[in-house]
TrEMBL record:
Gene Ontology MF term list: ATP binding; glycerol kinase activity
Family, similarity comment: Belongs to the FGGY kinase family.
Domain Carbohydrate kinase FGGY N-terminal: 16-276
BP terms from Gene Ontology: glycerol catabolic process; glycerol-3-phosphate metabolic process
GO CC terms in record: cytosol
Residues annotated as binding glycerol: 94-95, 157, 269-270
Chain's gene name: glpK
Name of this protein: Glycerol kinase
Length: 531
């Protein structure tokens, strides 16, 4: 389904591109000019709903209300109207998924968030039913059952099993889905559908990057895999149309603030940051430090299957061009560990205080935190792991714990980077520097420690809002506001660089202890543990 198609204009009155960033903790609207500079920002947080251990949910209607509010807020702050906006780009928390009624627009259940682990039993069931598992010794599970087709192993992280859970657990949902009454989508699809009219002709689509995170899309052909959908019990009628990242999806609804404005770009948040960081050449990589931590390396126009615990994903696709792929290392807990220190332990009052507290001590005092709150993601993929705080003595104080929180993110990123270098060696690539972005890059202690651990320069761009900027660039390229990715390269500018300077022996001693701490997290969740 497509909405009416007015002719987009990028003439003299269209000076800006608007990005809507629907994130894990908040929704933001950011207005960018042609130089890629931020003109105005508006932001609204949404509730984190935690019904039980391991479950994380959001209210989709609250998120849509917040999106409308921040769009209005940013236009007001900038004193800009829709006629001055060339296009709108969307970026989003990727694997979080919602199922809603196509006739009423009402969700049948809360958004199930990417951090949620409730679908482990579904993943186990699918892994046990694999033909390869049937030929293996008793009790074997094949968690790579679909990996060749979709680039992903079976894990609670991805959207497909979440939809399966909703259809199995919400009364009447399966019958309504099989009757064609329900739609599903990651958060880009939910926002796009509502922006373009909702029940009055809303566009039900997604882009290749978000589709590649569902575990339902063929990574080579970029279409839905009917067999996997059938295995998970998901009717094809629920699925959005898969389209390129930079293309005109539809136009703003008649009763909204963005009437007839082209919605012209969609990228999952980490792919958007990769696009905004101008990682268009094979071998270029970025690491985003947000709620989680996500490193992507451009592998060119063919998918590279990882032998080292990484994901094969779509980096982006511009309409009329071949898709570009990436290897990804996903870390579940990074900035959210600082929030845990603030909200659960009360050791700090504001997240920005963690750096000052960590600087109050010379080192971690022997303490290590492994934040396996939802199991371990890349490169381990151990759902049975749970978080640990180890190495404690009477000497350790809250400064050392803050330092251990800071260092945990850097150690996890090093594990991913080393796995990425092993995979990339087969393609002739090797990381010589690491581009970084996200809120935690303001923390200079963390960034210096990160450079020390990975052993290559860490580089932060002048414009830190790379996720929203990437979505804006995709939308702007689709309507001709920017001519090509070369404009993105030309706009990118270095803001700060950290060079590694830690002695090799100390670097390796710290990392050796980190690996020992990781080993303590494993095999914590037994079959009889209910979460």
């Amino acid at each position: 389904m497509t909405s009416p198609s007015p002719t987009p204009t990028t003439g003299d009155t269209a000076h800006y591109v608007l990005a809507i960033d629907q994130g894990t903790t908040s929704s933001r609207a950011i207005l960018f000019d042609h130089a890629g500079c931020v003109i105005a920002v508006d932001q609204a947080e949404h509730d984190q709903i935690l019904p039980r251990a391991g479950w994380v949910e959001h209210d989709a209607m609250q998120i849509w209300a917040n999106v409308r509010a921040v769009v209005g807020g940013v236009l007001t702050k900038a004193e800009v109207n829709r006629h001055e906006i060339a296009a709108v780009g969307l970026t989003n928390q990727r694997e979080s998924v919602v199922v809603w009624d196509r006739m009423t627009g009402e969700p049948v259940y809360h958004v199930i968030v990417w951090q949620d682990t409730r679908t482990q039993a579904i993943c186990d069931r699918l892994a046990a039913a694999s033909p390869r598992a049937a030929q293996a010794p008793d009790g074997a599970h094949d968690y790579d059952r679909y990996k060749e087709r979709v680039g992903l192993g079976l894990a609670t992280y991805f959207a497909g099993p979440k939809v399966a859970w909703i259809l199995e657990s919400v009364e009447g949902a399966r019958e309504r889905a099989e009757a064609g009454d329900l739609l599903m989508g990651t958060m880009d699809s939910w926002v796009l559908w509502n922006l373009t009219g909702g029940v009055n002709g809303g566009v039900h689509a997604t882009d290749v990057t978000n589709a590649s995170r569902t575990m339902l899309m063929n990574i080579d052909t970029l279409d839905w895999n009917e067999e996997i959908c059938a295995d998970m019990g998901i009717p094809l009628s629920m699925l959005p149309e898969i389209r390129p990242s930079a293309t005109v999806y539809g136009y703003g609804r008649r009763n909204g603030l963005l009437v007839d404005t082209p919605i012209a770009g969609i990228l999952g948040d980490q792919q958007a940051a990769t696009f905004g960081q101008a990682c268009f050449e094979k071998g270029q990589a970025k690491n985003t430090y947000g709620t989680g931590c996500f490193m992507l390396m451009n592998t060119g126009t063919r998918p590279v299957r990882s032998d080292n615990g990484l994901l094969t994903t779509v980096a982006y696709q511009i309409e009329g061009e071949a898709p570009v792929y990436a290897l990804e290392g996903s870390i579940a807990v990074a900035g959210s560990l600082v929030q845990w220190l603030r909200d659960n332990l009360g050791i700090i009052r504001d997240s920005r205080e963690v750096e000052e507290l960590a600087r109050s001590v010379e080192d971690n005092g022997g303490a290590y935190i492994v934040p396996a709150f939802s199991g371990l993601f890349a490169p381990h993929w151990r759902p049975d792991a749970r978080g640990v705080l180890v190495g404690l003595t009477r000497f350790v104080n809250k400064g050392h714990i803050a330092r251990a929180v800071e260092e945990a993110t850097a150690y996890q990123a090093r594990e991913v980077l080393e796995a990425m270098n092993r995979d990339a060696a087969a393609t002739g690539s090797h990381l010589t520097e690491l581009k970084v972005d996200g809120g935690m890059t303001r923390d200079e202690l963390l960034m210096q420690f990160q450079a020390d651990q990975v052993g290559v320069p860490v580089v932060r761009p002048r414009v830190a809002e790379t996720t929203a900027l990437g979505a804006a660039y995709a939308a702007g390229i689709a309507v001709g506001f920017w001519s090509s990715t070369q404009d993105v390269v030309d706009n990118w500018a270095e803001g700060r660089r950290w060079e590694p300077h830690m002695p090799e022996a100390e670097r390796e001693r710290l990392f050796r202890n980190w690996r020992k701490a990781v080993a303590r997290t494993l095999n914590w969740v037994d079959d009889d543990v209910v979460e």
